[in-house]
Write a structure and sequence with these properties.
With about 100 residues, the chain is of the alpha+beta class. Helices cover about 25% and strands about 40% of the residues. The protein starts with a helix and ends with a strand. The relative contact order is 0.17.
Length: about 100
């Protein structure tokens, strides 16, 4: 019986930590969360107030280095004085951070 309790506790802890990184943001079109595509965010939240796109570097031979990615930062707001900063890597939302400028 102790073994079943230990397994249940461990599964609960794993579930808690797997959900800890999931951030969300409410938009007029619905709720978005990390893992969403840039298309989904545009559909639900519209165009951002500001956007920065950092493309992978290009080597002299015209190729990008292995494992390079496009990184985008989108800014929404201010909403009640706070801005939301969304980070995308290769079109997938990986981080949502809210704060004041």
């Amino acid at each position: 019986m102790k073994r079943a309790s230990l397994i249940t506790v461990l599964l609960g802890v794993l579930f808690y930590f797997s959900q800890a990184d999931a951030a969300t943001m409410r938009c007029d079109g619905g709720l978005i969360a990390t893992g969403a595509t840039s298309f989904e965010v545009l559909t639900k939240c519209g165009e951002p107030a500001d956007k920065e796109v950092v493309e992978p570097t290009v080597q002299p031979d015209g190729n990008s280095p292995r494992n390079s990615a496009t990184v985008e930062t989108w800014v929404y707001g201010p909403d009640n004085g706070a801005h939301s900063f969304l980070r995308f890597i290769d079109g997938r939302l990986v981080k949502i951070q809210t704060g004041r400028l």
